Automatic annotation (TrEMBL):
Pfam family, any one: Chitin_bind_4
Keyword Signal: yes
Annotated keywords: Cuticle, Signal
Range of residues in the leader sequence: 1-17
GO molecular function, one term: structural constituent of cuticle
Gene name as annotated: 106085049
InterPro entries: CHIT_BIND_RR_consensus, Insect_cuticle
Protein name: Larval cuticle protein 9
Source organism per UniProt: Stomoxys calcitrans (Stable fly)
Length: 93
């Protein structure tokens, strides 16, 4: 859970650091054994993540994606999973 909270905090800090962006969509739900959040800003930044605690109650499985436009106009989308075997991103440009 700590991994998920840190990742969410980093993404939200990144998103809110851009003062010229308006929040178009924001949703979060955090429970003891699962969580979900969605964030969309007016500057083409989007992020969503969800996770759940495995049946053993010790390991989290998290999946999500975020996307943004670079300063040179390229669109980047990162989809990922994270589990007890590590962080597994796939980047599309």
């Amino acid at each position: 859970m700590k991994f998920a909270i840190v990742l969410v905090a980093c993404l939200l800090a990144f998103a809110y650091a851009n003062e010229e962006a308006d929040v178009l969509k924001e949703f979060s739900e955090v429970n003891a054994e699962d969580f979900k959040y969605v964030l969309e800003l007016s500057n083409s930044i989007k992020a969503q993540q969800e996770g759940h605690l495995e049946a053993d109650k010790e390991n989290w499985v998290v999946k999500g994606e975020y996307e943004f436009d670079t300063k040179d106009g390229k669109h980047v989308k990162v989809s990922y999973t994270a589990d007890d075997h590590g962080y597994h991103p796939t980047v599309q440009q």
